[in-house]
Design a protein that fits this description.
The complex is a heterotrimer of chains A (561), B (118) and C (245). Chain A is mainly α and 561 residues long. Chain A has a single domain, classed as Cytochrome C Oxidase, Chain A (Up-down Bundle). Helix content of chain A is 64%, strand content 1%. Chain A contains 16 helices and two strands. The radius of gyration of chain A is 23 Å and the shape is globular. Chain B has two domains: 67 residues; 51 residues, no CATH class. Chain C starts with 13 loop residues before the first helix and ends in a 6-residue tail after the last helix. The chains are: A mainly alpha (561), B mainly alpha (118), C mainly alpha (245).
């Protein structure tokens, strides 16, 4: 954990980005990417709670087959708002806007992102979009499903569709601006010696994510714009009564929303690519393949969207082509998983909390990804489309994958962000609680899906109750797993043990700054002369590097954990 | 620093003038062509001329011809992704065939189920 | 981060700043391509499906006004390019002149668009409750701006179209949805562009641009040219459907 197992307690640096200036204006008008990242952390956590509240309502309602808690209409609104909040206001921004914003300039040796003011604007746009969506919730929420299918959303729904559509539309621009900022930053702001293939894979992952944000988000923007026009002014592209086509809406919607899931998972994969080498003290296996796989996922991810529409009556030939492409898109993810595993082999592994989350990711993402293949097979999909199998599949990837990556990253970089360490044993227990709670929540849902329980239904046959109860019980445990880090990370930010520059130690350029960093990140622009994850040639890390070739670098002794 | 900009290539007003005159001429041609009955090729000709005009604007007015390779890659990526959106979606509509092997005309896809009349 | 003259604090050199801002604008334009692409897709599918209605709708547009607007916008691209050249060659007075001309041409475009939109309102051709493609043909006195010869042609066309498509009114509304959607979106982008041009004008009057630093003129120019390219496609797609009848 810490290279200094014993010795004098470390001191917080005198000047850093948190105490550089004071007052609410210095935070709300900041252009420092690190402060903006913390603004994002607050906002995203707020929406996570809201999405979690809706999840709680769903699971409580589903404890009984006849659903006594909510009316059917209210239930529709619960799962819709859960989806809208979690997808657009939690998953898509989380890692890029918080960890990406905080770390990318430091990882490449820059003082800030290319466009700091646009960075702040992006946060404000998110807040405005969020306010519109909250307005929709206050006015009863919407009941169309987070997918806004027409003509329900544009013509027939009596719920607060308008504000929600506007909120998500506005939020899209936040995503676009963040992606634009990252792309340009990585191209033009790298320090001398930081060549493309010395970049941390976290940066590669965010580069790929930004490509998806740039190319996909405008399409959902125009789609929601047209849907809003249809609802407000009766335009008619998606309304069959006027000769419009609901399937056109679905094509346009999923053209973005499928790549959107890669926006959600690629950053998490980037985090894992940082965690595993650090806690195995070994260079990442197949760096170039992992970098290329990130780009491949981003590109091929745009070619598969109609697999969400297999049952709409679309062309069978198109369906076959898209099914094939869906199988192809699994390959780069598999390559990454193999490379992470190969990195572990012969490494010097320790089980610090971030590593626990990384292990959780490996297993759960694999299950989620494999079940995606079942869904991508045309014949099988006929039976499991729109069932709980789909729900379990994407929660395995989004929660078991993306959220684990998010939490693992938060823990890993918390000492850099705050200068202080979180309590290690409590954190490990929380990680276990989360893992157990997660599996109890979502594994039964695979079974429910195979048994035929449809999704988005407010009631179910009594024989499904045992699995629903198991799922709700698991959700309660999962909730504890989420709440614990929120509490102890906040506590640790103020009272945790001072961490020092590089507590793990890790090889990234961000660990060469003080913790917390200066506003300008570096005193002097670094000149990079080393490769990424090169544990063997970094004497500055203070690790015990044996001279025998192939011998693992020795993990540092654990201090008073 | 990664890529350095070369000394700026300044396009002359004479070139700009030549381009704008070409664009105006092409506009005239496109209107003229619209009045000639080319059947289903009217749209092809119209889009072709529009693309030539757009290409001239991108290359000369927007200086893409003199821009670094990276800019050209960005432009091509944009056009390619637009083509992806259009062609892959149209491939669904264009290849729908019902269980009898009969191709769906587009109107049937949107208005009625196969075999249904009126 | 502090700013020294034109150089922002996160950059090392003006060259890096220029490179960064230009790349940023190009990537933003790619997002705009995808944004307009979505509505182009909707247009494409509906045009193919309801060709008669779309042809009918297209023929109610004034080719004269549309063609004039196209010329105006192309000219404004020329004046914008000349503004960039003036900045690159430090001809400060000319920068202001060409920016002003570009803004002027933009406003001419808006004026013509206003006339066209007003005409559509008058003729009950705006999507919504009052939409009626047959309005002018059945109420010729209400549509005095269409002369007798054009009215006779329209009557003929509409009879043929109505025979081919019994649901002509509903499908024509889709054409006008595309028309207002696409030209409206385009006009919105032009308004933003005009705003940017006004800002540039203010800066150019203050003497901010010269051969060493003219990047803002350059990147606003990129945006303006893109808006022009959108119109280059909109004109044939909306105004020139089946004109040869």
């Amino acid at each position: 954990m810490r290279t200094q197992a014993t010795g004098p307690a470390l001191q917080m640096p005198e000047k850093h980005y948190l105490n550089a200036t004071y007052g609410i204006r210095s935070w709300l008008l900041t252009t420092d990417h690190k402060r903006i990242a913390l603004l994002w952390l607050a906002a995203v956590t707020f929406f996570f709670f809201i999405g979690g509240f809706f999840a709680m309502m769903i699971r409580l309602h589903l404890l009984t087959p006849n659903g006594y808690l909510l009316t059917p209409d209210m239930y529709n609104r619960m799962f819709t708002m859960h989806g809208v909040t979690m997808v657009f206001f939690f998953l898509i921004p989380s890692i890029p806007a918080i960890l990406g914003n905080f770390l990318i300039p430091m990882m490449i040796g820059a003082k800030d992102l290319a466009f700091p003011k646009i960075n702040l604007l992006s946060w404000y746009i998110y807040i405005i979009g969020g306010l519109f969506t909250l307005w929709s919730m206050i006015n009863g929420g919407l009941d169309t499903g987070w997918t806004f299918y027409t003509p329900l959303s544009t013509v027939y729904s009596n719920s607060a569709v308008g504000p929600a559509v506007i909120g998500v539309f506005i939020n899209g621009f936040s995503s676009i601006l963040t992606g634009l900022n990252f792309l340009v930053t990585v191209h033009t702001m790298r320090a001398p010696g930081m060549t493309w293939f010395r970049l941390p894979l976290f940066v590669w992952a965010h580069y790929a994510t930004s490509i998806v944000m740039i190319l996909g988000t405008p399409v959902i923007a125009i789609t929601l714009g047209l849907a809003a026009m249809e609802r407000l002014f009766g335009l008619g592209f998606f309304n069959p009564a006027m000769g419009g086509d609901p399937i056109l809406f679905q094509h346009l919607f999923w053209f973005y929303s499928h790549p959107a899931v890669y926006i959600m998972i690629l950053p998490a994969m980037g985090v894992i690519s940082e965690l595993i080498p650090t806690f195995a003290r070994k260079r990442l296996f197949g760096y170039h393949f992992v970098a290329a796989a990130s780009l491949a996922i981003a590109v091929i991810g745009f070619l598969v969207w109609t697999h969400h529409m297999f049952l709409t009556g679309q062309s069978t030939y198109a369906a076959v082509a898209f099914s094939f492409l869906t199988f192809i898109v699994a390959i780069p993810s598999a390559i990454k998983t193999f490379n992470w595993t190969a990195t572990l082999f012969g490494g010097s592994i320790s089980f610090d909390t971030p590593m626990l989350y990384a292990f959780g990711f490996l297993g759960l993402f694999m299950i989620g990804g494999l079940t995606g293949l079942f869904l991508g097979a045309l014949g099988v999909d006929i039976n499991i489309h729109d069932t709980y199998f789909v729900v379990a599949h994407f929660h395995y990837i989004m929660v078991g994958g993306a959220v684990m990556g998010y939490l693992g990253g938060l823990h890993f970089w918390w000492p850099k962000i705050t200068g202080r360490m979180y309590p290690e044993w409590l954190a490990r227990i929380a990680a276990f609680i989360l893992f157990i709670g997660f599996n109890f929540t979502f594994f039964p849902q695979f079974i429910l899906g195979i048994m035929g329980m449809p999704r988005r239904y407010h009631m179910y046959p009594p024989e499904f109750q045992i699995y629903n109860v198991m799922s709700t019980a698991g959700a309660s445990i999962l909730a504890v797993g989420y709440l614990l880090p929120m509490v102890y990370l906040t506590w640790a930010a103020f009272y945790g043990k001072v961490a020092g520059d590089n507590p793990w130690p890790a090889t990234g350029l961000e660990w060469k700054t003080q913790s917390p960093p200066l506003t300008e990140n570096f005193d002097v622009t670094p000149v990079v002369t080393w490769e990424a994850y090169d544990f063997h040639n970094r004497p500055d890390l203070g690790l015990d590097v044996p001279s025998g070739k192939g011998s693992p670098v020795v993990a540092p002794a654990h201090g008073d954990d | 620093m990664a890529e350095q900009e070369h000394t700026e290539h300044i396009v002359s007003p004479g070139t700009y003038l030549a381009i704008i005159l070409t664009l105006l001429a092409l506009t005239g041609i496109t209107v003229f062509a619209a009045f000639v009955n080319l059947g289903r090729f009217n749209i092809v000709v119209a889009l072709l001329i529009a693309t030539i005009k757009a290409t001239l604007v991108v290359l000369i007015f927007m200086h893409a011809k003199y821009a670094p390779e990276r800019t050209k890659l960005v432009i091509i990526a944009g056009i390619f992704w637009l083509a992806l959106l259009l062609f892959m979606t149209l491939s669904d509509y264009a290849s729908r065939v019902d269980y009898r092997g009969v191709r769906y005309p587009m109107t049937q896809i949107i208005l009625r189920a196969p075999g249904q009349r009126g | 981060m502090h700013r020294t003259g034109a150089l922002f604090g996160q950059f090392k050199t003006l060259e890096q700043q220029k490179d960064t801002a230009t790349l940023g604008m190009w990537i933003f334009l790619v997002t705009e391509v995808m944004f307009f692409g979505g509505i182009m897709l909707a247009y494409t599918i509906n045009r193919h499906t309801y060709f008669h209605a779309f042809a009918m709708g297209s023929n109610t547009l004034s080719l004269g006004l549309g063609g004039f607007n196209t010329v105006v916008l192309l000219a404004s691209s020329f004046t914008m390019a000349m503004a960039v050249w003036s900045a690159q060659t430090s001809r400060k007075k000319l920068i202001t002149l060409f920016l002003s001309l570009t803004i002027l041409l933009g406003f001419v475009f808006f004026g013509v668009k206003y006339v066209e939109y007003a005409q559509k309102f008058h003729h009950h051709l705006v999507p919504g409750k009052n939409f009626d493609i047959f309005y002018c043909v059945t109420n010729p006195t209400k549509c005095e701006d269409i002369d007798a010869a054009d009215m006779a042609k329209e009557r003929e066309e509409i009879e043929v179209a109505a025979k081919a498509d019994p649901d002509l009114n509903a499908h024509a509304q889709l054409y006008y949805s595309a028309y207002f959607g696409m030209t409206g979106l385009h006009a919105l982008h032009m308004v933003i562009g005009a705003g940017l041009l006004f800002w540039l004008l203010k800066e150019s009057v203050a003497g901010r641009f010269n051969a060493e630093w003219n990047n803002p003129v350059d990147i606003v120019g990129l945006y303006w040219h893109f808006v022009d390219i959108v119109w280059i496609y909109l004109f044939p797609l909306l105004y020139l459907i089946d004109r040869h009848k």
